[in-house]
Design brief:
Structural class: alpha/beta
Oligomer: single chain
Number of strands: 6
Helix content: 10-25%
Order of helices and strands: HEEEHHEEEH
Number of domains: 1
Strand content: 35-45%
Shape: globular
InterPro entries: DUF6428 (IPR045534)
Length: 152
């Protein structure tokens, strides 16, 4: 989900409860705090030698012992607005960073409303080869990025 759509959902229901549904059917605890709003820029070279750049908006969810805490959509919208100078003008994809054993990044996939709650549905993030034309073994391919018929 793009940041503009995410903010639109927050602004439409500023006083609802805010929930994040995990891909496995669980949920981030309702008393989680959003402790960071940031822009994450990544510059890298894929295994085929192509230089690539990506950017996304990261919202870090942190669960504390304060079980009475509740972050409402309107408050989160105001926090994101304060971060506007660092987020820039791009309509970035939004990801939730959450630690439940391991720190994981979950792209925000969709939003829904139910029972007075705004629910953001999170999806999984997977690795992928971005240069399959160079790296995947192919009987008709004589060489690849490193001349051996496979990734280096």
């Amino acid at each position: 989900m793009k940041l503009s759509e995410f903010k639109s959902h927050l602004q439409r229901t500023p006083n609802d409860q805010l929930r994040f549904a995990l891909p496995d059917g669980g949920a981030i605890e309702a008393h989680a705090h959003i402790t960071e709003v940031g822009r994450v820029d990544k510059a890298f070279v894929d295994c085929g030698g192509t230089v690539r750049r990506t950017a996304h908006c990261s919202l870090q969810a942190w669960v504390a012992d304060d079980t009475d805490h509740r972050l409402l959509p309107g408050k989160l919208a105001a926090i994101i607005e304060k971060a506007a100078p660092i987020l820039g003008d791009e309509d970035l994809d939004v990801e939730i960073e959450y630690q439940d054993g391991l720190i994981s990044q979950f792209p925000v996939e969709a939003a829904s409303s139910a029972g007075g709650a705004l629910i953001f549905h999170l999806s999984t993030k997977n690795t992928d080869c971005l240069a399959k034309e160079f790296c995947l073994p192919n009987a008709n391919q004589e060489s690849s990025c490193c001349g051996t018929g496979g990734c280096c």
